[in-house]
């Protein structure tokens, strides 16, 4: 998300995309990683990310 060479990958586009998903989705930039251990999710970041829920407001970092 928000990469200077990929101007179409905006947060607004991620929100539109996630609205059609049946489950939550993460929008992350190149300074963010998602670590999953035994079903536990950890966002490792020095950048920007958002957990998008189709039925709820997004969780923001």
TrEMBL record:
Q: Which domain of life is it from?
A: Bacteria
User: What's the protein here called?
Assistant: Uncharacterized protein
């Amino acid at each position: 998300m928000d990469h200077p060479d990929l101007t179409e990958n905006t947060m607004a586009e991620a929100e539109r995309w996630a609205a059609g998903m049946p489950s939550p989705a993460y929008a992350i930039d190149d300074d963010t990683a998602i670590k999953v251990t035994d079903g536990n999710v950890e966002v490792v970041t020095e950048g920007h990310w958002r957990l998008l829920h189709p039925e709820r407001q997004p969780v923001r970092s």
